[in-house]
Amino acid sequence: MTVDHRNPVLRVVPGPTDINANGHIFGGWVLSQMDIAAGIVASRRAGGSVATVAIEKMEFIEPIHLRDVISVFAEVDRVGRTSMAIRIEVVATRDRGRTEKKVTEAIFTFVALDEQHRPRPVDQGE
Q1: Tell me, which fold does domain 3-112 have in CATH?
Q2: Which residues have C-beta within 8 Å of that of residue 76, sequence separation ≥ 6?
Q3: What strands lie across the sheet with 69-79, from one edge to the other?
Q4: CA angle (91 as vertex; 58, 13 as ends), nearest 5
Q5: Fewer CB atoms near the end CB (10 Å): N or C, the chain?
């Protein structure tokens, strides 16, 4: 994925309550932002409700600092019968926009849900 040619699904600035003891942003905070962005993309693709069922290959590449602007990019990577994989990339913009750093990436797997919260075919809207 090339950052320059995409629009983020989310853009967020972490606050002072999101800092861990090392002065960096909590990994769980970043994970929740990724899940929100991936859920938006998965729900749009499925045409209805979805649930996160797995996270693959997540690695923290760089720390996120207070005052970084976090951009979360998400795209459908692959689609199965009832599930889909959403590729996520998180980029931190710092130094008043002069520096961009990829901070993490992962693949989130979602299942499309019917009205009874049971798996349903992705290509069958609610």
Answers
A1: Thiol Ester Dehydrase; Chain A (3.10.129)
A2: 41, 42, 45, 84, 85, 86, 87
A3: 10-12, 69-79, 83-94, 99-112, 50-60
A4: 110
A5: C
